[in-house]
From TrEMBL, chains A, B:
This is Polyprenyl synthetase family protein. The keyword Isomerase does not apply. Keywords: Magnesium, Metal-binding, Transferase. Its cofactor is Mg(2+). Gene3D superfamilies: Farnesyl Diphosphate Synthase.
Length: 359, 359
């Protein structure tokens, strides 16, 4: 059993990531002409770079190993199908950053900030910030559409695509429902049960469970394999989100590429803060209320909030919730009807690196 | 040849509209449980009412007659497929109103305003306006996903769905590209050629051309029919957008359900205003610049802007552009290889009512 976020990080498979990125680049380039019939070259370039910016390509990876777990052979079609989920992920990130008014993503300005910068630099009419947000809403929409197109035209057998469709549809809708719950949780003040539900819908489904099952269904997996992958993916996806919450509070922005203040300032209704509230003294509870969701939170205020999160035992409790879910996923993996031992080994490695990552 | 916006409005087929709305309601209700696993009942109800609010159901109608034009028989599956485009339309309207900061739609508050009202009424935490916008971004996303799901599960033959897919993908991407061009046009100040391009991408594709071709492709139409429907749909869709511009400036808000000030205040880069600029004296040009895009435009200022639009000949010129396109569509329809005279008659009627509507 591995504890602590620094313990183990799997070696990324650079070959696989390069293949995914090659397919993404080729797809986007094939759509460029239609996009830039008018003068939108700078925005297209920024969007392309955004999609291809360094990232873990975790969702394509899970999709690929779901495929392999169901006996699928390596090939460009499954890489394309897997890469399409990365386009979907970019769509989610873009809209999420607008909604959270996050300025940074993957160590760069968020897409709406980059579009606003183009507007400002070019001396265009109107408000640059508003242009940035509007353009990013549309760019997100477009990537969602293109994600579907990339999947549907990946070259795999139509029967596989049909078999995977229910998992695709569920993944997509669950992300949106989860985003909605997230907004409502924030409006309601947040609770542990609410945060777990948001993690399940908003993140678990499309980060691990959905991609694993989509990959397997594309390969014609029997129901037993799909169910087993669901039993692995759901707790692992929740663990992923809880790790994300910890990284948002305690991570190194130079490593995560994201601010370690945004979640606090935004008042993000995380499981971490819900646990802190549940374990707080009356005095600490007042401090949390004053600090969490304060858009002008100072570095000192954030440090105090972190100290309270540690002192209430919330950080440890959330680590325990992660461990518990990783253990569930591990047991589900051990029991899963996967015939290829290499696939089992890869999933084991992914499981550890997903739960105990630093970025 | 019919001139003037009041000349002819086809009788809406209430039976068809009711069938479309029944399918939309049934689909949304089938997704309700997943949506409201947490406490999101009020927002779901508002979204459902928004989708089902009175509207022309123009896109399902074109899809249906495209299907019939290719020899498809009436039945619930094609109603479902056609209704799925209405969900896509709702997604477009929701995001469009956010981007344009429009407060009214179909005679009701825009969705982001309705969500903001729920927040304010419920005394939730945080900023009601921001919640409204965020919730509406996600609700739009969700309807886009559900639109795909409703189409893919409509019960039609997979071969038809595959044949229609290129038209579906193009329709979706073109709307987004058109929205992007629209934002850029606004930032650039607007031009007639830009406005025509925006009309083509943002509106023509998904209002007439896309639905017609999707319906026909679902029925297995040969390429000649698909091409003919494209030749009808593209000019008619552009005419639809130009009529929209005229209604946004000269329409009766009680009939259109939309403000007659928003387009002006927003500085929407319409063909109408581009034509006025092109025909303006230096004095009029300065007046247009001062009035168009002024968020504090008064009723008197709007009246002056309307007068300038008339005096420069822009209104008449845009009516002529509509007539020209309707005539192109009419000739394309006359030449189209459609065997059923009833279908031809319906399309003829739709053509007239689409170009010469009052709302």
């Amino acid at each position: 059993m591995v504890h602590g976020i620094t313990a183990l990080v799997a070696q990324p498979d650079l070959g696989f990531r390069r293949q995914v990125d090659d397919e993404l680049g080729a797809f986007l380039d094939s759509r460029r002409d239609r996009w830039i019939e008018s003068g939108t070259r700078p925005c297209f370039s920024v969007l392309r770079s955004y999609v291809l910016s360094p990232g873990k390509r975790l969702r394509p990876t899970f999709c690929y190993w779901g495929w392999r777990g169901a006996g699928g052979e390596p090939g460009p079609q499954i890489i394309r199908a897997a890469a399409s989920i990365e386009l979907f992920h970019s769509f989610c990130l873009i809209h999420d950053d607008i909604m959270d008014t996050s300025d940074m993503r993957r160590g760069q300005p968020a897409l709406h900030r980059q579009f606003a910068d183009i507007h400002a630099r070019s001396g265009w009419r109107g408000d640059a910030t508003r242009f940035g947000v509007n353009a990013a809403i549309v760019a997100g929409d477009l990537l969602a559409m293109w994600s579907d197109e990339m999947l549907q035209t990946c070259g795999l057998d139509p029967a596989g695509l049909r078999a995977a469709y229910p998992y695709v549809a569920r993944m997509r809708a669950d992300v949106c429902v989860g985003q909605f719950l997230d907004a409502e949780e924030q409006a309601h003040g947040g609770s542990l049960s609410g945060a777990v539900l948001v993690a399940r819908y908003k993140t678990a489904g499309y980060t691990v469970q959905g991609p694993l099952q989509i990959g397997a269904a594309l390969a014609g997996a029997p129901q037993a394999v799909l169910t087993a992958l669901g039993a692995i993916g759901r707790p692992l996806g929740e663990a992923f989100q809880f790790r994300d919450d910890l990284l948002g509070a305690f991570g190194d922005p130079k490593v995560t590429g994201k601010s370690d203040m945004d979640d606090f300032r935004e008042g993000k209704p995380t499981a971490l803060v819900a646990l802190a509230r549940d374990g707080a003294t009356a005095h600490q509870a007042r401090q949390i209320s004053a600090l969490h969701g304060n858009p002008r939170l100072t570095v000192e205020g954030a440090a105090l909030l972190r100290r309270i999160i540690v002192e209430t035992g919330a950080r440890k409790a959330l680590e325990a919730m992660i461990d518990e879910r990783v253990e569930q996923a591990r047991q589900a993996l051990a029991a899963a009807p996967l015939s290829d031992p290499a696939v089992r080994g890869e999933l084991e490695l992914l499981l550890t690196s997903t739960a105990h990552r630093e970025s």
